[in-house]
Amino acid sequence: SKQPCNVYLNETAYATFRSLQNAYITVNELCDGQIQEIMRYTTRDREYVRVTVKAVGVHHNELGNQHRALGLILEATRAKSKILKPNSSRRYQIGILGDTDGNGEYVPLYVDDFHKVDILVLHLGTFSNKKLGRGGKHLYIKGVSRVLKQMGNKLEKNRASKKIVVLSEFGLELADEGLLYRKLQPFIESHSWRLPWSRPARWFGSR
What we know:
- The protein has helices at 11-17, 107-114, 140-157, 177-190, and strands spanning 5-9, 25-29, 35-42, 48-57, 70-79, 90-98, 119-123, 164-168.
- It is an alpha/beta fold.
- The chain has a 6-stranded mixed beta sheet, with helices on one face.
- β3 and β4 form a beta hairpin.
- It is globular and about 50 Å long.
- The model is unreliable at 195-207 (pLDDT under 50).
């Protein structure tokens, strides 16, 4: 691309792709705990907006048996003044947990890091039954269930507002819509969820 582009990668990916840096692409290493400003702009109603991304260390077995995976928290802060003071600005957060091990030992750490976000994106990985353990690849169904349960308990205890949870990466990228619905049905029913769109009841027929 001939348009300037900033790419932010974790340590493992940075070591692999930093050689691609050129006049149009800047490759940056992103480390656990780092907060990087990625955008500032002014809206039509003259509000000032600052967008940052925060890197959060998570647990995922990467290629080469590396364990430097990162989750991300995107934060947009809006205010009438260029000086974004906490008491005079509004903040919105989207948390992306990414590829993470669903072991019960790690889940409390995820909840502590991401419970304040407004929208949480969880990668399921696959609907297949996988053995969960230290150094695993994804949350899987059990891991997602653990995150939702513990997150709900923490929010209820703190009397916090409800969150929007987005499930992604089902491991069914090439499946037709009907198969995806059939796989989702028991999982959604077990958590009293509703799909955000409607489809004919035939999708929920016998499996």
